[in-house]
Write a structure and sequence with these properties.
By secondary structure, this protein is α/β, with parallel strands linked by helices. Strands 1, 2, 3, 4, 5, 6 and 7 form a seven-stranded mixed β-sheet that branches. Helix 3 runs parallel beside helix 6, helix 3 packs across helix 7 and helix 10 runs parallel beside helix 11. It is globular and about 110 Å long. About 14% of the residues have low confidence.
């Protein structure tokens, strides 16, 4: 912004003073008037004379106010990033820390199945299983299950991958393993399926619905019956129970405690003392005189 005195400029050249004053104060006006017109609109304003006439202020007054205010920054710019994150999930810092924890667990060959069993979570678990299998095919993988269940087809993708990879896949129930979550819990390696003492396990028949023409409903019903027979057959294999017993138990929601799930055959151990179980599995006595 120029500091030319308008009176002096008019005395030197009365014909060009007005044009020069308005031209030199165009940017100054756009800065000073931005609180009223908006920053973008004022920056696009090319004719200072027209803007001065609309606001009822002379060019010299506009230039003086601009010199006093110097540069004006909109206050909303400071909080823009904060407002942009509202309603879009956890902040990036929280997600970064969570991903860091998940990476540390992966380095210990631990996979987390938390929340609903859906395509997104199961695709991630499948990728983690394949990666850990490639890194070390002889070291066990542990999956911690805390899930209310979900998609049967997504869960079967994880189940098939658990059987496909070379390492033994151990499962641990923390919190709740229901529906497809209970199925994946019981699908772990025999002898390496665990549950925390206060966990709950629930099995039942598949849920679903269909609408449309009668033929379409029949197709969907046959698909659900296929999943029901497949899941019941696998559960009978995992638990060592007759198929008709499993079909009767899964006809309605069947909740079990950790001890009851162990008796039923869904898990092999209840972890009352993780250190003691680990010591027994390793064959190293914890205390003097222990006979393992």
């Amino acid at each position: 912004v120029s500091s030319v005195d308008p009176a002096r400029a008019r005395a030197e050249n009365p014909h060009s003073c007005r044009a020069r004053v308005h031209t030199e104060t165009t940017m100054a006006f756009s800065i000073a008037a931005s609180p009223r017109l908006g920053l973008e609109r004022s920056l696009r304003q090319a004719d200072g004379r027209k803007v001065a006439r609309q606001t009822g202020r002379s060019a010299c007054v506009v230039r003086a106010s601009a010199e006093e205010s110097k540069l004006w920054l909109p206050k909303s710019e400071v909080n823009y990033d904060i407002r942009a994150q509202q309603g879009k999930g956890p902040p990036p810092m929280v997600m970064e820390r969570f991903q860091g924890v998940a990476s540390q667990l992966m380095s210990q060959r631990i996979i987390r199945l938390g929340g609903a069993v859906d395509d997104d979570s199961c695709n991630l678990i499948v990728a983690q299983l394949l990666w850990l299998d490639a890194m070390d095919p002889k070291k066990d993988i542990t999956i911690y299950v805390n899930s209310p269940g979900g998609s049967v087809t997504a869960g079967m993708a994880v189940f098939d991958t658990m059987r496909h990879v070379r390492p033994d896949v151990s499962t641990v129930c923390v919190g709740l393993a229901a529906s497809m979550g209970a199925f994946l819990l019981s699908a772990g390696q025999q002898g390496k399926r665990y549950s925390m003492p206060n966990s709950r396990i629930m099995i039942h028949q598949p849920l679903g619905g269909a609408q449309g023409q009668a033929a379409d409903i029949e197709i969907q019903a046959n698909e659900i019956m296929h999943h029901k027979s497949t899941l019941n057959g696998y559960i009978a294999e995992f638990c060592g129970k007759p198929l008709d017993v499993v079909m009767e138990d899964t006809d309605r929601d069947f909740f079990m405690s950790a001890a009851e799930a162990k008796e039923y055959g869904l898990v092999d151990h209840v972890i009352d003392n993780p250190t003691e179980i680990a010591a027994k599995a390793s064959g190293i006595p914890m205390y003097a005189g222990d006979n393992l």
